[in-house]
Write a structure and sequence with these properties.
379 residues, Immunoglobulin-like, four-stranded antiparallel β-sheet, 34% strand
């Protein structure tokens, strides 16, 4: 833009010199044109773009990457020579930020849409915001800034892999207060139906009173309790907040673990740190949609947050879970506060092997080998 201004000044000076040496109508017209045109161009800039609006909305995703539509509206009768807006895409979890430049020439009384494909580097909740736009006059001699304030959010999920878990025991599930109708269980307080005995049925499930009345063995089909079976906690990866590969691996292990348990089990709750209060957020997971909604929240927690165990809520310690699993980069100092006699497993980034101490089992995994490190683990 500075070069254009210098060139314009030189042209005007040249026309002025030419007019002084050759005082004719043609040279006068040329001089006036070179003076008037920049003035008109700058004047149009001053009058235009006052009602310019830039907004965004999430578009339907057709490929691997999310797409956002940037809408530029010019409701005035004056055309805009050039609009340049910077769109900043920030990963709320890792703090990574990328900038995209949008350029457009809106016509009078028009609305134009530009599709922006976000190229995420890591999983996380992304804030896509445009804070200002720069308007340029037709001759690109001057510019001014217009304040905008619109933003959109998209969630990029980590890789989810099959973990092939094995489960140690269902004994603690007897404390549950609800039952699943889709599978047989072992809750003596919830009888789903009565049927005839078949070889292999547990003897303890035989309904002796009805069997005596009907002269044939009948068994009770017990409900499968689903409340408070598993609590999976994503402990903020404060120690590895500056290592993108570690953050990506921890998020992938947490998402894969919760999805696998959700499919295998009827009772799952997950927890993470609330970035506003520092306390634990607990969500009950029943359907796949519950996990998707939860991902919008836990993938927005900055990795620099302190561990959730530093400000643990009492309701976690007082709740009865069959098994608590923690995914993080260190063994939390407050792990004993929530154990409450139940089984506890820590999936530890950077750890090696499996160690059990004080009813807490630690299983290590690394970025390159996490699928093999966690294949077939027992919880």
């Amino acid at each position: 833009m500075l070069k254009r201004r210098i060139a314009c000044i030189l042209l005007i000076l040249s026309a002025l010199i030419l007019y002084l040496f050759d005082n004719e109508t043609v040279t006068l017209a040329l001089l006036l044109a070179l003076v008037v045109m920049p003035a008109v161009s700058v004047g149009l800039l001053a009058m235009s773009g006052r009602n310019l609006r830039i907004s965004m909305e999430r578009a339907a995703q057709t490929g691997e990457n999310p797409v956002v539509k940037v809408r530029i509206e010019n409701p005035d009768f004056i055309p805009l020579a050039s609009v340049e807006a910077e769109v900043v895409c920030t990963n709320l979890r890792t703090g990574e930020a990328d900038s995209y430049i949008i350029r457009n020439t809106p016509m009078p009384k028009s609305t134009q849409e530009i599709s922006l494909e976000v190229m995420p580097r890591n999983a996380g909740r992304y804030e896509i915001a445009v804070s200002s736009a720069v308007l340029t006059d037709p001759l690109h001699l001057s510019s001014r800034q217009v304040v905008c304030s619109d933003r959109e959010y998209v969630t990029v999920l980590p890789e989810i892999f099959e973990m092939q878990l094995s489960y140690a025991s269902d004994a603690a599930m007897l404390e549950s207060d609800r039952s699943a109708d889709s599978r047989r269980g072992n809750d003596p307080g919830e009888v789903r139906s009565i049927r005839e005995y078949v070889p292999g049925d547990p003897v303890r499930n035989i309904h002796w009173k009805l069997s005596e009345k009907t002269d044939k063995l009948l068994v009770k089909e017990l409900g499968n309790p689903i409340t408070d079976q598993f609590l999976v906690i994503l402990d903020t990866a404060h120690e590895v907040s500056q290592i993108p590969a570690a953050l990506e691996t921890i998020a992938s292990v947490f998402a894969s673990l919760t999805e696998t348990i959700r499919r295998d089990s009827s009772g799952l709750s997950i927890a993470w740190t609330d970035p506003g209060t520092g306390r634990a957020v607990i969500r009950k997971i029943v359907e796949e949609q519950d996990l998707t909604s939860a991902a919008d929240e836990y993938l927005a927690v900055p990795a620099s947050m302190h561990s959730v165990f530093e400000r643990i809520d009492r309701n976690i310690a007082e709740s009865r879970y069959a098994h608590i699993v923690v995914v993080g980069s260190m063994v939390p100092d407050g792990i004993e506060a929530i154990a409450n006699g139940c089984q506890v497993t820590v999936l530890l980034y950077g750890g090696t092997g499996t160690v059990t101490e004080n009813n807490v089992t630690t299983i290590g995994f690394e970025s390159d080998t996490c699928k093999g490190d966690l294949a077939g683990i027992e919880i």
